[in-house]
Design goal:
The complex is a heterodimer of chains A (430) and B (827). With 430 residues, chain A is an alpha/beta fold. Chain A contains 20 helices and eight strands. Chain A is globular and about 75 Å long. Helices cover 26% and strands 20% of the residues of chain B. Chain B has 24 helices and 36 strands. In chain B, the strands form nine sheets. A seven-stranded mixed β-sheet of chain B has the order 15-14-27-26-25-16-17, with helices on both faces. In chain B, strands 31-35-32-34-33-36 form a six-stranded mixed barrel. In chain B, strands 2-1-5-3-4 form a five-stranded mixed β-sheet, with helices on both faces. The longest helix of chain B is centred in the middle third of the chain and has 19 residues, at 296-314. The radius of gyration of chain B is 28 Å and the shape is globular. Chain B starts with a strand and ends with a strand. Classes of the chains: A alpha/beta (430), B alpha/beta (827). Chain A binds chain B through residues 168, 170, 185, 190, 339-348, 350-355, 358-359, 362, 369, 371, 375, 381-383, 385, 392-396, and chain B through 44-50, 52, 63, 65, 68, 83, 86-87, 89-91, 93-95, 97-98, 127-130, 153-154, 156, 173, 175-180.
Chain lengths: 430, 827
C-alpha cells in the first residue's frame, strides 16, 4: 500500500516525467505560485505543521531546523545534500533522474520561505546522469521564469547552482559537504557552531536532503496539516525506501510508515529469492545496526520504533541478507567501506576503522586469534564508548561509530558464527 | 568580576578567564590535560582526540575535546574518570598502531610528547599484530627539513602553522583516511622562510631539521636562553649546545616579540660559529703583502703602532670607526668609548649607509605588541618578510587573525601583499610625491587615506630600498605621527643597530641618546670618562669619502663589511682599495705612492673589507659573549654565552681594552665594567642590570625608557628628492638569503642563496627589447652588470628591481639604464 506524493508523476508518466512540459501539465509549479501569495513565515509554518523529519539519515524535524536561523544575519544559503552515498541508498537518484522539477520547485519555495537568494545542490560525483537531468531542469526553470531575477514578478531573486562532488562518502556529512563546496578538503567541522548559525562561507545555512525538499510543493498545495495526517506520529508523511539484497523485488518504494518489516520485505519486496530463509537485514543504511527475524520482523517500520530497538531508519536503505550470507564477510564489506571513506582527521576513526578491517580480514582468511573476539569489541568501544544507541563518540563525526555497527551486530546476533571461524575461540557468551 | 567564571575540575572549583579554552584554563589552574594537535598560538581543531574529557550536561556526561570548548560559568568537568582514562589509552593505542618503533634513531627521542604521554596516559601494551603502513622515509620537503610520514600522527600542526601563521601553505594533507599523508605540492618544495618552526612544533619526529639530525640527544644538551642577533626583532631563543658546540636554536614563547617562532635564517644561522673559515687567531699583513697568523701581542702592538702613526700625522680626526651593530651593547659602548675617549675622534657610525636617520631610530618607538591592538597598520618599509621575518609574522597575525586593516606601500610586491587590504606600488624616487597625494587624500588614494584615519594606527616605517633616499622614511614617519592614536615604529635590519645607536655609535649621538651638539651632555660624559669628548664627527659616507681623499688615515672595523654592505659599493671599495700583494697603495690607476689607509678589523671572518686590512683580530660572537642587546622596540634583552670562542678568539671588549692600554689610556675594565658604566651614563638604561634581566622580568626584556616628559624626537622635515628624469628607477633591496659572510659560511643556507635576477615591468621589457632566455644589461654611473631578467608586473612602470648582495652590483644610483644583455641563459 503506497501513497504517492513523490513518485506519483514518474509512475504515471514514466517516459517524460522529468520534463518541464510534463511537470507543468501535471500541476507543477502550482505550489510555487501559491507560496508566492503567502508570506515567507506562512510557508515556514506549513513545513513546521507537516512535522516532516529529515530524509537524509538523521531524521531531524525540518521545521525545527529552519527555525534555527538567526534573524538578522545575511546572506543565508540553502544547500541541498544530493551526495547520497550511504551504501544501499538509491532513492535520491531516482528523484533526480525522474522528477527533478519537483526538487527544483521545492528548493525555490524553501528559498522564498528562508530568505535565501542562492541555493546549491551538491550531487555526488558518481551521479553524472542525475546531475545532468537536474541541471537541465534548472535551466528550463530559469528560462520559464521560475528561477533568476524577479521570479514570476514577485520580487524574489533565486539562483540554483549544481555542484558535483568527487567521490567521497564523508562529503555527505553536512559540514564536510560545506567544506568541499568551499573548495577545501572534505572534512567535517567541529560543531558547534552548527551550519544554521555559521555554515557556508561562515553564513547561516540550511542543509536539507533531496527527498525532504521534494515534498515541499505538495505540502504547500495541500497544506502541511495534510502531510501530518499521513502515517503514525513521529513518522508522518510518506517515505522512500531503497530495498536491496536477497529480495525478489529490489527497488525504491514510497510507503506510509507503520507497516511491519515483514510487510516490507515479504509484501512489497516479494520475499527472499529462491524462498531461502531470511537471516538478517540492515534497516537504515550501512551505518545502522542489523535486525534479525526472531526479534524484529513484526516490529513497525517507524523512526521511533527503530530507535527504540537500538537502530535507525537512517537513509531508508534496507539491505536484506539470507541464510547463505557469511556474516563476517558481510560485516567486513561494510567496515571496509567506512575505513576507505574515513576522512582521516581524527585518530580513533582513522586508525580504528582500518584496524577493525584488518582484524575481520584475518578472521575471514582463517588467521583469527581467540583474543580477536574481545579485541574487536574493545576497539569498537574505544571509538564509540559503551557501544550504546544512540552512539557516543570519541570522534569528530558519526562515521567512526558507523564502523562499529556491523561489528556489534554480528557479535550480538551471530557470535557463535564468528567464533567458529577462529581456531581455538571459545563460543560461550560473555 | 565579569570577565572570570567559576568551573569545577575534578571536584575542585576554580576561577578562570571567561571564554578561554577549557584545555588552557585547566592547565593554568594546575590540571594538565594531554594533547597533541592543540597549540596555544593556533586555532584548535580537535583532531587528535587526546584531550577528551567529560563535561556534565543535561543528558549526563558528554565526552568532548577540551581544546574546542570554551569555559562557561558553572561548568563541571572530569579529567580523570574511568571513561576519560579509557579514551586516553584508546587514543594512544590507536596512535601507536601505525607509528614505527623508531625511537632509537629518532631525533625526538627524549623530548617527545608521544613518548611522554604514552608513559603517563597510555596502555601498557599494544594489541596490534598487523603490518603497519609504510612510506618512503624520510623525504626532504625543502633544503632544511625532512619529513617521515610513517612517524606522522597527522595532528596537522605543521600544515596549520604554514596556513595560519606563516601564510606559506605549501604543505598539506593529501589522500584520505588511513592513507592520509603530509606532502608538498608537485614540483613545489616547502619554500618557506619559516619551515623550521614546523620541526619545533611537531609532536613526534616526523619533521626533522637537516642541521640537527642525529647530532645530539636532548639529555646531552646544555641550554641557555638568549636573544637572536640576526635582525633587530630580537627573537627570544634557547641556544642548545653539546660538547662546546652550538647544535641548535629553539624559539622561546614570549608574548612581546616572537611568540615562540623563529625565521629559518635565525634558527639555523649558527653553523658559521664553527665553520672552516672562522678566524681562530689574529692576523697581520706581512712584508709580502699577505695576511698571516700572529700572536695577540704582535697583532695588538701592530694595531696600536698603526693608529698612533695616523694620530700623529693627521690628529685624532684622522681615525674613524665603522660597525658595532652586530654585537652586544657592552661591546658597542666599549667601541664608542675607545674611539671618543681613548683615540679622541668623533668619527663613528654603526650604520653602513643602509639605515635611516639615526634620530629616527632612537628615542623609543612602538612595541610589537601594539600591533595586537591596532585598528590600522601602515607598512612603508623594506619587505618585512625578507628583512625582519618574525615582525612580518606579527603583522600578518594582526591582519588575518585580529582584524586590523593592513596597508602596504612599497615599490613592488612584498610578502604582506596577499593579506593587505590596500596595496600601493610606487616608482622609487616618486615617494615624496606619493606622500603628498596621500596627505591630500584624493583620487586613487582616497580609500587608503580614509583607512589611515581609523586609529589606533601602527606605522612601520623604513627605507624600502638601498637606492632610496633615507629622507623619505623620515618624512613618512612625520606623516604617520600625525595619524590618530599613532605609534610609529622606524625599522632597520641589523641585529643590534638600535643598541649601538643607544650606545652612541653615530656621529650625532652620545651614549644614552644624548646629542653630540648638546654641550651639557658632552660635559657630563667627559666627567664620567675623565677625558674630553669630541663635538663633531663624520658618518659612514663621510668616513669612506675621507678614506678616499686621505683626510682619514685609519679605520677601525668592528663586525662591519662596508665593501659588501654599503649600497654604493664603488665608494666603499675605492675607500680602501689595495692592489693584490705588494706595498699598500691608495688611489686608482696606480702611480700614487702614498700608503693606503691603516685598517684594523675585529671580526669573526675574513670578508671583502678586512681582506684589505692591516690587522685582523679574531673575536667572540653570538653564543660566545654575554651581554645585552636592544631591539627595534628599544627593548633591552639579555644575550647569553654557552660556548667558548674557537681557538684564540677573544672577547671584543677585552681586546679593545688591551689596545686602549697600548694607546696610553684605559678603557675602564671588562664587560662587567662596561655594563655598569652604561647604567650610569645612559639614564634610559638605568636599572636595566644583568641581574634584573636574568632573575627579574628577564624573559620579556626591559624597555629602555624615553627621558621623562620627552616626546619622540622627530628629525626636521627633509628636502624632497626629485624623481629620476630618465632611465629606470632602481629598487635595490635585500633578500633574506644573500651572500652575507655568516649566511654562506655554513652548509645549511648555501642551496638557498639564489642567483640574482633583474625584475623588469613587462611593458618596459617590451619597450627595451629584452628577450626571453637572454640577459639584461644594467648600467649605473660607475659599473655595469649582465644578468638574467624576469617580468614583474607588481613594479610601477619605469622601475627595475635588483636584489642586493647576491653577487651583482651597479652601486646604488637612483636610476640605471637597462638594455638587452649579451649573455644567454641556460635552463
Amino acid at each position: 500500500m503506497t501513497s504517492s506524493i513523490l513518485f506519483a508523476r514518474m509512475e504515471a508518466h514514466p517516459s517524460d516525467s522529468n520534463t518541464l512540459s510534463r511537470y507543468e501539465a501535471t500541476g507543477g509549479y502550482a505550489g510555487l505560485r501559491k507560496a508566492l501569495t503567502m508570506t515567507p513565515a506562512e510557508v515556514v509554518a506549513e513545513v513546521k505543521a507537516s512535522n516532516i523529519r529529515g530524509r537524509g539519515g538523521a531524521g531531524f524535524p525540518t521545521g525545527v531546523k529552519w527555525g534555527f536561523l538567526p534573524p538578522d544575519i545575511r546572506p543565508r544559503y540553502l544547500v541541498v545534500n544530493a551526495d547520497e552515498s550511504e551504501p544501499g541508498t538509491f532513492k535520491d537518484r531516482q528523484l533526480l533522474e525522474r522528477d527533478p522539477h519537483q526538487l527544483v520547485e521545492g528548493i525555490i519555495i524553501s528559498a522564498y520561505a528562508l530568505g535565501v537568494n542562492q541555493a546549491f545542490v551538491y550531487v555526488r560525483g558518481e551521479y553524472p546522469r542525475p546531475a545532468r537531468r537536474l541541471q537541465r531542469a534548472v535551466d528550463e526553470a530559469r528560462a520559464a521564469g521560475f528561477l533568476g531575477v524577479n521570479v514570476l514578478g514577485s520580487g524574489l531573486d533565486v539562483e540554483i547552482t549544481v555542484h558535483l562532488g568527487a567521490g567521497a562518502y564523508i562529503c555527505g556529512e553536512e559540514t564536510a559537504l560545506l567544506n568541499s563546496l568551499e573548495g577545501k578538503r572534505g572534512e567535517p567541522r567541529i560543531k558547534p557552531p552548527f551550519p544554521a548559525i555559521a555554515g557556508l562561507y561562515a553564513k547561516p545555512t540550511i542543509v536539507n536532503n533531496v527527498e525532504t525538499l521534494s515534498n515541499v510543493p505538495w505540502m504547500i498545495v495541500n497544506g502541511g496539516a495534510a502531510y501530518d495526517a499521513i502515517g503514525p506520529e513521529g513518522s508522518r508523511g510518506t517515505r522512500l525506501f531503497s530495498l536491496s539484497g536477497h529480495v525478489r523485488r529490489p527497488g525504491n518504494y514510497e510507503i506510509v510508515m507503520g507497516m511491519t518489516w515483514r510487510d516490507l520485505i515479504y509484501g512489497l519486496g516479494g520475499g527472499i529469492r529462491g524462498d531461502k530463509a531470511l537471516k538478517c537485514w540492515i534497516p537504515g543504511g550501512a551505518s545502522a545496526t542489523w535486525f534479525v527475524p526472531s526479534l524484529h520482523l513484526d516490529e513497525p517500520v517507524t523512526i521511533d520504533d527503530a530507535g527504540r530497538l537500538g537502530s535507525m531508519l537512517g537513509s531508508g536503505a534496507v539491505v536484506v541478507m539470507d541464510e547463505t550470507t557469511n556474516v563476517v564477510a558481510a560485516a567486513l564489506s561494510v567496515v571496509r567501506f567506512f575505513a576507505h571513506e574515513s576522512c582521516g582527521q581524527c585518530t580513533p576513526c582513522r586508525e580504528g576503522a582500518s584496524w577493525l578491517e584488518r582484524i575481520l580480514d584475518r578472521i575471514l582468511r582463517g588467521d583469527g586469534r581467540p583474543a580477536d573476539m574481545d579485541l574487536l569489541l574493545d576497539v569498537c568501544d574505544n571509538i564509540s564508548p559503551g557501544l550504546r544507541w544512540p552512539p557516543a563518540m570519541t570522534t569528530i563525526c558519526p562515521l567512526g561509530p558507523s564502523t562499529v555497527s556491523p561489528i556489534t551486530s554480528i557479535m550480538r546476533h551471530f557470535r557463535d558464527e564468528v567464533a567458529a571461524m577462529i581456531p581455538g575461540a571459545v563460543t560461550a557468551d560473555v | 568580576m565579569s570577565d572570570r567564571v567559576t568551573i569545577t575540575i575534578d571536584g575542585k572549583a576554580v576561577e578562570v578567564p571567561a571564554g578561554q579554552l577549557l584545555i588552557k584554563a585547566a592547565e593554568e589552574a594546575g590540571t594538565y590535560i594531554p594533547r597533541f594537535c592543540w597549540h596555544p598560538h593556533m586555532k584548535p581543531v580537535g583532531m587528535c582526540r587526546m584531550c577528551l574529557i567529560e563535561v556534565e550536561g543535561p543528558r549526563g556526561r558528554l565526552l568532548t575535546t577540551s581544546c574546542t570548548m570554551p569555559v562557561a560559568e558553572g561548568m563541571v568537568i572530569h579529567t580523570r574518570s574511568d571513561v576519560v582514562k579509557k579514551a586516553q589509552e584508546g587514543v594512544l593505542e590507536f596512535l601507536l598502531i601505525n607509528h614505527p618503533l623508531d625511537c632509537p634513531v629518532c631525533d625526538r627521542g627524549g623530548e617527545c610528547p608521544l613518548q611522554d604521554q604514552t608513559l603517563s596516559h597510555g596502555p601498557g601494551e599494544s594489541r596490534f599484530v598487523e603490518e603497519k603502513r609504510h612510506f618512503t622515509k624520510p623525504i626532504p620537503i625543502n633544503d632544511l627539513v625532512f619529513l617521515d610520514r610513517e612517524r606522522c600522527i597527522l595532528c596537522a600542526r605543521c600544515t596549520r602553522f604554514s596556513d595560519e601563521i606563516s601564510g606559506d601553505p605549501l604543505i598539506e594533507f593529501i589522500d584520505r583516511g588511513n592513507h592520509t599523508q603530509v606532502n608538498t605540492f608537485p614540483d613545489e618544495p616547502f619554500a618557506s622562510y619559516f619551515s623550521g618552526n614546523t620541526v619545533q612544533i611537531c609532536p613526534v619526529g616526523a619533521l626533522t631539521a637537516r642541521p640537527y639530525r642525529f647530532r645530539a640527544r636532548p639529555w646531552d644538551l646544555e641550554a641557555v636562553e638568549s636573544t637572536c642577533g640576526g635582525c633587530s626583532v630580537g627573537c627570544r631563543v634557547s641556544i642548545q649546545a653539546s660538547q662546546n658546540e652550538v647544535v641548535r636554536l629553539l624559539g622561546v614563547d614570549v608574548a612581546t616579540t616572537n611568540q615562540g617562532w623563529l625565521c629559518d635564517k635565525g634558527r639555523f644561522g649558527f653553523e658559521y660559529l664553527r665553520a672552516p673559515g672562522r678566524l681562530t687567531t689574529p692576523l697581520v699583513r706581512g712584508e709580502d703583502g699577505e695576511l698571516r697568523e700572529a700572536t695577540w701581542n704582535e697583532a695588538l702592538d701592530r694595531a696600536a703602532a698603526g693608529l698612533q702613526q695616523v694620530i700623529a700625522d693627521k690628529g685624532p680626526d684622522g681615525v674613524a670607526g665603522i660597525g658595532g651593530a652586530r654585537g652586544t651593547n657592552e661591546e658597542a659602548y666599549a667601541f664608542g668609548k675607545f674611539l671618543r675617549s681613548v683615540v679622541g675622534t668623533g668619527n663613528v657610525d654603526a650604520r653602513v649607509g643602509d639605515a635611516v636617520d639615526a634620530a629616527l631610530l632612537v628615542g623609543g618607538t612602538g612595541k610589537i605588541d601594539d600591533l595586537e591592538r591596532a585598528k590600522t597598520i601602515l607598512v612603508w618599509a623594506p619587505d618585512l618578510k625578507e628583512e625582519l621575518p618574525v615582525l612580518h609574522l606579527r603583522v600578518r597575525r594582526a591582519a588575518t587573525a585580529l582584524g586590523s586593516t593592513l596597508i602596504v606601500i612599497h615599490p613592488r610586491a612584498t610578502g604582506l601583499d596577499p593579506d593587505a587590504d590596500h596595496v600601493v606600488h610606487y616608482r622609487p624616487g616618486e615617494g615624496f610625491e606619493l606622500l603628498d597625494r596621500l596627505r591630500a587624500a584624493t583620487g586613487d588614494l582616497a580609500a587608503v587615506a580614509g583607512a589611515l584615519q581609523s586609529g589606533p594606527v601602527v606605522a612601520i616605517v623604513g627605507r624600502t630600498g638601498l637606492a632610496e633616499s633615507a629622507d623619505l622614511a623620515t618624512a613618512v614617519a612625520a606623516f604617520a605621527a600625525s595619524l590618530p592614536d599613532a605609534t610609529v615604529m622606524p625599522v632597520s635590519r641589523r641585529g643590534n643597530l638600535y643598541g649601538a645607536l643607544d650606545m652612541g655609535l653615530a656621529p650625532t649621538l652620545l651614549p644614552g641618546r644624548a646629542s653630540v651638539s648638546d654641550a651639557t651632555a658632552r660635559s657630563a660624559l667627559a666627567d664620567a670618562w675623565g677625558t674630553a669628548v669630541p663635538d663633531h664627527g663624520r658618518d659612514t659616507d663621510g668616513i669612506l669619502a675621507g678614506l678616499s681623499d686621505g683626510s682619514i688615515g685609519a679605520l677601525v672595523l668592528v663586525g662591519a663589511d662596508p665593501a659588501a654592505d654599503h649600497p654604493d659599493r664603488d665608494l666603499a671599495t675605492r675607500a680602501f682599495l689595495r692592489p693584490q700583494g705588494g706595498v699598500p697603495r691608495r688611489g686608482e690607476g696606480g702611480g700614487a705612492t702614498e700608503p693606503g689607509p691603516f685598517v684594523v678589523s675585529f671580526d669573526l671572518f675574513l670578508n671583502d673589507s678586512n681582506r684589505r686590512a692591516d690587522v685582523v683580530l679574531a673575536v667572540d660572537g653570538f653564543s660566545e659573549v654575554e651581554g645585552t642587546t636592544t631591539n627595534l622596540e628599544g627593548r633591552v634583552q639579555k644575550a647569553n654565552r654557552i660556548v667558548p670562542g674557537p681557538g684564540l678568539s677573544r672577547s671584543l671588549v677585552e681586546a679593545l681594552g688591551d689596545l686602549a692600554d697600548r694607546l696610553g689610556r684605559s678603557l675602564g675594565g671588562g664587560t662587567d665594567a662596561m655594563a655598569k658604566e652604561i647604567a650610569a651614563v645612559a639614564p634610559a638604561y638605568a636599572g636595566i642590570t644583568w641581574d634584573a634581566l636574568d632573575w627579574g622580568r628577564g624573559r620579556d626584556g626591559m624597555l629602555a625608557a624615553l627621558p621623562a616628559g620627552a616626546a619622540r624626537p622627530l628629525p626636521a622635515a627633509p628636502v624632497p628628492t626629485t624623481p629620476p628624469a630618465d632611465g629606470m628607477a632602481l629598487h635595490l633591496a635585500r633578500v633574506l638569503y644573500d651572500e652575507g659572510t655568516m649566511t654562506i659560511a655554513g652548509p645549511a643556507f648555501a642551496p638557498l642563496v639564489k642567483a640574482p635576477i633583474l625584475h623588469v615591468h613587462p611593458a618596459d621589457a617590451a619597450r627595451i627589447g629584452l628577450a626571453e632566455g637572454a640577459t639584461a644589461a644594467v648600467a649605473g654611473p660607475a659599473s655595469t652588470a649582465d644578468l638574467p631578467w624576469i617580468a614583474d608586473d607588481s613594479l610601477a612602470p619605469g622601475t627595475v628591481y635588483l636584489p642586493f648582495n647576491l653577487g651583482v652590483s651597479v652601486g646604488a644610483p637612483s636610476s640605471v639604464t637597462v638594455t638587452p644583455g649579451t649573455g644567454g641563459v641556460s635552463k
